[in-house]
What does this fold into?
Amino acid sequence: MDGNGRWAQRRSLPRTAGHHQGIEACKRTVRAAGEMGIKYMTLFGFSTENWSRPADEVNELMRLLRMYLRSETADLHRNNVKLQVIGERGPLSREIVTLIDNAETLTRNNDGLHLIIALNYGGRMDLAHAAAKMAAHLNDQGLEPNFENAEEYLPQFLMTADIPDPDILIRTSGEQRISNFLLWQCAYSEFVFTQTLWPDFGEADLQAACSEFKTRERRFGAIQNA
It folds into this structure.
């Protein structure tokens, strides 16, 4: 769920202002998802490609991330939300990694909404790392990697190994691309596109997307039932 830059541009505001409003949209949407009984939700917070943005914008995004983790972790815990972060943590600051670790530890036993935030994440990177780990595992087992065992083994080496594949992917701001997000996992997800800009997104938009999802017939490659 993206669109902060477009929001700022359309309203003649600095891009950083759009990012700040995007944090508020995150809070609204997480709260609404919990109230609606949604069990898993993944938000794309920062991609591997986002490092190429201007340094002041990246710094502001990191500042907002620190602010969110400091201010919202206790609230997430009170609301029985389990927080999990996927992505490569190496390039993140030690402070941010510590905040993530603390938030995950505090909320790990919660059984309400399972909130996954993708930080420094890319679908291609996830697949490449998983393939390398799978090949090493199969080699240790004396097995030769092939198509059949790759289909079986590769998912357990993805960063989302313990998370169900998404039923629905919501793309905001009128964009109609996947943007390197959960490439393997979204193979059979239903896509819902909305013109609503991410900083304006809220409960009504989430409910509308879920209502549209309920009208879809999911066949997973099979033929329609007679």
Q: What stands out?
A: The mean pLDDT is 90.
